[in-house]
Amino acid sequence: MKGTAGLRDLEVQCVIGVYDHERTGPQPLHIDIELDYDFAAAAASDQLADAVDYDCVTRTITRLAEQRGYQLLETLAEEAVSRLFHELPMVQTIRMEIRKPRAVAAAAASFVRVERERP
To answer: Domain holding 40: CATH number?
Structure first.
């Protein structure tokens, strides 16, 4: 039984941007994550060990965002997807959107969206 689990609008703080004024301190990022995997084992056992652990996803993304600065959203997205595949072996596909509010004055947010299959 294939399905999708994930998080909507996870807020993390990150020093991110190309310009000096963007790198004076952490900025909020909003992240949507979708993780495709076979739910059969989780549904049968009703045990977290067989399912996506949302706390693990949150910790993984938050650590990456807070541990170092990034110039580009693309770099953070690629590193996050790679780390999540390592942490969650049952996941086959990851879709992630990272939004940076007020990055451009005339827009609510800039964003990147990636979709990756397990290598």
So the answer is: 3.30.1130.10
Residue 27's domain comprises: 2-117
Catalytic-role residue among 100, 107, 108, 117: 100
2-17 CB burial, b ≥16 within 10 A, e <16: eeebbbeebebebbbb
Would the pTM of this model clear 0.70, i.e. be above it?
yes
Q: Would the CA dihedral through 115, 80, 6, 111 be positive or negative? A: negative
Q: What is the pLDDT of residues 21-76, one digit of tens each?
A: 999 999 999 999 999 999 999 999 999 999 999 999 999 999 999 999 999 999 99
Reply yes or no on whether 2 is catalytic.
no
Nearest to 60 by CA among 96, 17, 16: 96
